[in-house]
Amino acid sequence: MTRFQELVRQGRAEGIEAFLVGVVVLDGQGRVLMVRRRPEDRFGGLWEFPDGTPVTLTEHDAHRWAPLDDLPQVGGHHAEVLDHLRRHGTGR
């Protein structure tokens, strides 16, 4: 069993029914690519990471490259990941 399969098994045992993927994209200056959810969408107006599919503005109404010390308002799990990057660096 792979590590991923084990994580899925554990998640399902704990009642998790869906798994989502996000991608933190950094440019050469250490800025993070963020996309903003459309106002009428669930969590409208919040910024998030691209979800691993090609970025189009059909689900999002804006995008920006944001420095780690000047990020837009993001949701809970995105904030946790960005905080980790701020504390531990980007691995560059």
Q: Strand order across the biggest sheet?
A: 2-1-3
* Overall geometry: globular
Query: What do the pLDDT scores average to?
Result: 81
Overall helicity: 25-40%
Number of helices: 2
Q: How much of the sequence is in beta strands?
A: 15-25%
C-alpha-based Rg, rounded: 15 Å
What is the N-to-C order of secondary-structure elements (H for helix, E for strand)? Answer: HEEEH
The structural domain count equals 1
Q: Structural class given helices, strands, pairing?
A: alpha+beta
Descriptive account of the structure:
The chain has helices at 3-13, 76-88, and strands spanning 32-37, 47-48, 60-66. By secondary structure, it is of the alpha+beta class. It has one domain. It has a three-stranded antiparallel β-sheet with strand order 2-1-3, with no helix packed on it. It is globular and about 40 Å long.
Name its key features:
92 residues, alpha+beta, 3 strands
Brief summary of the model shown:
The protein is of the alpha+beta class and 92 residues long.
Structural topology:
Elements: H1 3-13, E1 32-37, E2 47-48, E3 60-66, H2 76-88
Antiparallel strand pairs: 1-2, 1-3
